[in-house]
Design goal:
about 850 residues, alpha+beta, Rossmann fold, Dna Ligase, domain 1, D-amino Acid Aminotransferase, Chain A, domain 1, eight-stranded antiparallel beta sheet, 22 helices, disordered N terminus, disordered C terminus
């Protein structure tokens, strides 16, 4: 049991009989349920929140019980422990998934509520139909579809067709445990029924929606004609205390997507009475005695028929509408019922005003790319409210890929016609753009005949592409807090020969994570040393962008490009260079060839892959022999400089036979070594102050280079390299500084470096620069060259790290990769 700190509210609470009542709220639900907890606090309720994790609702809770609400036994045990220290006066849930759990809790601890049997009668649609039929209540004909049915086999195909023998088409296939019209599909013939069954079976799972933890069974039932209405009912001790009927606008079939509503209902009184009576008979037959019930019904040519009964308050704008039109506070009354306080409601015969609402629903799944005109909808006398659930960059999934909406708008008036006119005028001021996803076959580039079979694939692709679009919508100059992943390598202490490098790789990720958190971002750490690789963790994290500083996979630097390739495949935005540039820069031989092609000054060179290859005899000693595909100066020592053929042969044997790498042989350039640190992309680049390393103080037997031990010194033997003199910024002439900078920019752009990088050069005693290599995604630990150069121009480490994020965001904004969507303007 955790007691939480509640922000002080200096506003005086209204007088309420609920003041000081301790009520258990089961599952916070999504943030759009915030108004429920806010209202409970206004009524003086002490909120005890039972939830899987602390989330947005934490600030409203006085106490928190952590438990998985799909693990009923664990929840009951945690509540039992809580009750040893603190009383509970009642329990409620406003979340469809937890209706059975609330019933179990009420039964176990004697709280006011419905029985577990009644809750299952409502949650299980097949069970609901059985109970209603047994009690003589007219409802659609129905059948359960056998679990695991495969209509492709001859035997099961016959079974599948037998299901429809006593059911006329059109018919409805739906999940037994579903909610919010998910996977409810109209079918007009047996072939459509087979396709719909296959589509639902392949997509329905707890991974799509946790509600399917209760089961993934399907049922089929008779299609009902007529207008649809919702009936919201308050019932206490089996007596209906209040009801309200809302008209539903025609749904988009075959998926039954809701398009809008109107309150009060425009149906004649005799029809409304018939609907209310049918609803009341049904909830009593199911065993519902206390609480709020949301009933869905159709007014058919044969009279009203019940479609579904939900033992909780209706979602979206139902609470607001009923409070506005009838002055009845459903939340307050539900809480009173839960703690056993009597409710007495006098419903006015005359509505306060009329409301007409419509949902913003795109024609096709895609990514929201623009929302404009909301500021023009300001007249509260004509518009009740506008609610937008999606932001620019968010995916919106409509059937068959998903069952979402962008939001809704509600018009208000003294009559239905006035409310409708106000609504339409407001809608005309709002423009919502959605980049549509066009599912295509990979063969022949033709559209698929049916989107059903590809629904899960398309859904995954849209969610991936939404990450890119979300980044494109950000303003890099005014960066809000983001969810940022840090992709890196983490090593435990060991006696590995490369311990010094491993410690540095570990600390880079931790320091970046800390820096980002200090700037207000939420961070996630992904260790590419894990086995298996954390690909699923990355996908599930839903981060906005990844800060990619991974240098190894399977403990090999040769796989560094693969980390970027994984992120590209997942279509997750990330910082730094792409897989191609990273791979090209590891291969020093190909890099040198590109330098030659583009006339970049570089030391003369040759290379071999085996010892039987010949070497250019025009190369002049001294030469430096390097492994051609390593980083961190691994394999480079004082012995890497050779002055004759014998030393050359010995060093080549080491690189080829022992290190098992191709060998790059360069003419050694005596002089300074210069680091050119660059931040930015294409023409929007900033060259930071040059760093110059001078070697004159080294002993005579030590070559003037940065070998492995110079970069990773940790012993007395390596201390001689501390005598290397560093000058920062380098005191070259402005002309030479400009030349070095321009050459480095050419290298940076030719090799496709992105966001930040470091070009390494040698400058001989005559002032001639020679490019050695490009280091894309160089080490950016706190003491490394790039952050140190940034500090010289006034960027703290934290600001420098965030600057890289901003640079990457601007790059995606200007020219995002893998953007395959076509914009279309949403029409309602």
């Amino acid at each position: 049991m955790n007691q939480l700190n509640i922000p002080k509210n200096n506003n005086k609470k209204e007088s309420s009989p609920l003041e000081g009542k301790y009520i258990l709220f089961i599952n916070s639900g999504s943030p759009k349920k915030r108004f429920i907890l806010k209202r409970a606090k206004e009524l003086g309720v002490k909120i005890i929140l039972l939830n899987k994790e602390e989330d947005w609702a934490k600030r409203f809770a006085d106490f928190f019980i952590q438990a998985d609400t799909y693990n009923h036994e664990d929840c009951v045990k945690k509540i039992e422990d809580f009750l040893k220290k603190q009383k509970i006066d009642g329990a409620v849930t406003f979340w469809e998934d937890d209706v059975p759990l609330r019933a179990k809790i009420c039964e176990t601890f004697g709280f006011v509520g419905n029985s577990y049997e009644a809750a299952i009668n409502c949650r299980n649609k097949y069970k609901m139909r059985e109970v209603l039929s047994k009690n003589g209540i007219l409802c659609p004909k129905f059948k359960l579809i056998k679990n695991g049915l495969n209509h492709n086999s001859e035997e099961n195909n016959e079974d599948f067709e037998n299901i429809f023998k006593n059911l006329n088409f059109p018919a409805i296939i739906k999940p037994v445990w579903g909610s919010m019209s998910q996977f409810v599909i109209r079918v007009d013939n047996i072939e459509e029924a087979k396709k719909a069954y296959e589509y639902i079976s392949s997509n329905i799972s707890p991974g799509f929606d946790p509600i399917y933890n209760y089961g993934c069974e399907l049922m089929v039932e008779e299609y009902l004609d007529g207008a649809e209405v919702d009936v919201d009912i308050l019932i206490q001790n089996g007596e209906v205390k209040f009801y309200s009927i809302t008209d539903n606008f025609p749904t988009k079939e075959p998926y039954f997507v809701e398009t809008g509503d109107a309150l009060p209902s425009r149906h004649p009184e005799y029809i409304k009475d018939a609907v209310k009576n049918q609803a009341e008979r049904s909830i009593k037959a199911l065993g519902i005695k206390d609480g709020c019930v949301h009933v869905e019904a159709k007014i058919t040519s044969r009279g009203p028929r019940i479609i579904e009964i939900n033992a909780r308050m209706g979602g979206d704008y139902i609470y607001d509408w009923i409070k506005s039109v009838w002055c009845v506070d459903l939340i307050e009354e539900i809480l009173k019922i839960a703690v056993g306080l009597p409710i007495e409601i006098k419903k006015s015969d005359i509505p306060k005003f009329h409301l007409v609402g419509k949902y913003f629903i795109p024609e096709s799944s895609g990514v929201v790319t623009g929302i404009r005109g909301l500021g023009l909808v300001k007249d509260k006398t004509r518009i009740k409210n506008v609610t937008i659930l999606k932001k620019v960059g968010d995916a919106v999934l409509v059937p068959p890929e998903g069952f979402e909406q962008i939001g809704w708008i509600v018009g208000k008036g003294n009559t239905y016609a006035e409310a409708e006119q106000n609504l339409e005028e407001a809608i005309n001021n709002i423009e919502i753009k959605v980049a549509r996803y066009q599912p295509e076959s990979f063969i022949g580039k033709t559209k698929r005949e049916s989107r059903l079979s590809a629904a899960s694939v398309i859904r995954k692709r849209i969610l991936q592409q939404a990450r890119i679009e979300k980044i494109r919508s950000l303003d890099p100059l005014n960066l809000r807090p983001l969810k940022i992943g840090v992709l890196c390598n983490k090593y435990e202490d060991s006696i590995d020969s490369e311990l010094r490098v491993q410690k540095d790789l570990t600390s880079i990720g931790l320091n970046i994570k800390k820096a980002l958190e200090e700037k207000g971002h939420k961070t996630f750490f992904f260790d590419m040393n894990e086995n298996p690789l954390p690909i699923q963790k990355i996908t599930d994290s839903n981060v906005d962008i990844i800060f990619n500083v991974c240098e190894r996979i399977n403990n090999s630097s040769l796989f560094e490009p693969h980390a970027a390739a994984i992120l590209e495949t997942l279509q997750i935005p990330y910082t730094g260079s792409d897989a191609f540039t990273l791979a090209l820069s590891i291969d020093k031989i190909k890099m040198k060839k590109l330098f030659d092609y583009h006339n970049i000054p570089t030391p003369k060179y040759d290379y071999i892959y085996s010892l039987d290859e010949e070497i250019d005899e025009d190369l002049k000693f001294p030469l430096i022999v390097k492994p051609a595909n390593t980083d961190n100066s691994i394999g480079i020592t004082n012995e890497s400089i050779v002055t004759n053929k014998e030393e050359l042969w010995q060093r080549l044997k080491y690189v080829i036979e022992i290190a098992k790498r191709p060998a790059l042989i360069e003419e050694f350039i005596e002089g300074d070594e210069v680091d050119v640190c660059i931040v930015g992309n294409e023409e929007d680049l900033r060259v930071l102050p040059l760093r110059r390393a001078m070697f004159e103080n080294l002993p005579q037997n030590i070559w003037h280079i940065y070998p492995y031990n110079a970069k990773w010194k940790n012993s007395n033997e390596d201390a001689i390299y501390s005598q290397i003199k560093t000058e920062w910024p380098a005191k070259y002439s402005s002309k030479l500084t400009q030349l070095i900078s321009e050459i480095a920019i050419d290298v940076y752009n030719i090799l496709g470096c992105r966001d930040y990088g470091r070009v390494e050069l040698r400058v001989d005693k005559d002032g001639n620069p020679y490019v050695l290599e490009l280091n894309p995604n160089p080490s950016i630990n706190r003491e490394d060259a790039l952050p140190a150069a940034a500090e010289l121009v006034g960027l703290s480490y934290e600001n420098f790290i965030e600057e890289i994020i901003k640079t990457a965001i601007k790059r995606y904004k200007d020219n995002p990769p893998y953007y395959h969507l076509q914009s279309s303007i949403l029409t309602i």
